[in-house]
Amino acid sequence: MMLALPVPIWQHIAAKVICGTVWTLFGMVFLTLCGMLTTDTVSGGGFASDFSRVTAEDVAIWSAMLLIILALIAGALLHAYLACAFAAQFTQQRLLISIAAYFVIGFIEQMAALVTAVFVAFRGYKYLNNTGFSAASFFGPDNTLGVIVLTLLAVFALIALVDALLWALTQWLMTKRLNLA
Prior knowledge:
Strand content: under 5%
Order of helices and strands: HHHHHH
Number of domains: 1
């Protein structure tokens, strides 16, 4: 029924990802508030005094972390949607195929993340030391905030790249290879 609506496939994917991300964030905030109320964290002034010490550096780091969280939530939704789109290629056993595809896609993502981490750890660190580049010289001697935010934004860029790949594969499967039989 969903694909009978007269809108492009990318709008279907976008609607699902946006709606899923918003509801996931709402659920996270709700459960956090419930946990805080249950453990009596809000009353007693401890909670309000924690926010009185917020600095501009905190806002920069937390903003970058929020971007990462949003990209991870969207990626998880796209991961599941890609598994369903792959299973739609078959006429029988779609549920079983989508579950297997979900785990296979997850395994591929984990292996790619592992290879990337190993490459960055061995090649990237060695390259940075051999060229004389140091984060302290680039950002200043005492500016670790720039290093932290830049690292978080690099992680966000990698996650966004994986999300874009998941989006493109899902859209290709639903546009070119969809089997509604």
